[in-house]
Amino acid sequence: MDNDVVLMDNDKVGHFIAKLRKKKGLTQDELGNMLGISGKSVSKWERGLNMPDISLIYKLSEVFDVDLNQLLNGEDAIKSVVDLQNEENAVNTLKIESDDKSLRKTKKKSKKRLKFKIIISLIIIVLFVIAFVVWVHNKGDSYAVESSTEGFTVDGKLTIEDNGYVLYVSNISCLFEECLTETINTAQYSTFIDNNILFRSGILDYTSKKEKITLDDYLKSIVIELHNDYKTLGFDNKYFISNLYSMYIHIELVLEDGEIKNYVISLQVADKK
């Protein structure tokens, strides 16, 4: 029966049978018993010395659960170039799909980050615009402030706002000769508007100073910077604006010889800045 065979590549098919048998975990004798032949016959097949007949080929395909044509051609024993190329193409396709998927994820993340940055930038711009509008609205009108009292000069600025005011005065100078010669022991100044006190400084005592302080020295050291709201003062902005003409600085001095002197420097609002 073993001599009744079809034309096949004995070595190729033999190697294929051996491979499938080992894959099933069968010995040559165990495979022979399943087919009703001896283990020696199986050994001859695997060595390419003989081939199974057609009836055993069918049984082998059932035992190994392979296609009959594969068994006859021994295709799985040695993979064809086409099969290898197909496998390589499949691997490359999977790699391309994986890279493409990764690229899509990266692009998606980049778009999200860009969108987030744009939103944050828009929020910052909106907040800046709102802050600017509020600042412009609350900025109020600013006026130059100067002395209307003969013999005194000042540099100042007054800003009128809805809820309060900002007054800044510096560089107070006295043009009288006595201001350069008379020395003082103590000094104090106050700022008023229509007899309503805006600010009163503490009393400065110069008696212990080695170098005597003149009135001119004291005046140049004064820097008035007031930030007050109208509610604290007890009147509204209309009252404040209508009484700007009555703003003044009151200087109280005790000279070195004990004489008490008072100077009143009236302030006037000049041109709007």
Give the ordered list of helices and strands: HHHHHHEEEHEEEEHEHHEE
CATH architectural category of the largest domain: Sandwich
Low-confidence stretches: 1-6, 77-81
Classified by CATH, the class of the largest domain is Mainly Beta
Number of strands: 10
What structural class should be given to the helix and strand makeup?
alpha+beta
Question: What would the principal axes of the Cα set say about the shape?
Answer: rod-shaped
DSSP helix fraction? 40-55%
Distance between the amino and carboxyl termini: 123 Å
Describe the structure.
The protein is α+β, with helices and mostly antiparallel strands and 273 residues long. The protein folds into two domains: 10-73, 434 Repressor (Amino-terminal Domain), CATH 1.10.260; 142-272, Immunoglobulin-like (Sandwich). The chain has ten helices and ten strands. The protein has helices at residues 10-24, 28-35, 39-46, 54-64, 68-73, 81-139, 178-181, 215-221, 230-233, 237-242, and strands spanning 141-147, 152-160, 164-174, 183-193, 196-200, 204-205, 213-214, 224-229, 247-255, 260-272. A hairpin with a 3-residue loop joins strand 2 (152-160) and strand 3. The model is unreliable at 1-6 and 77-81 (pLDDT under 50).
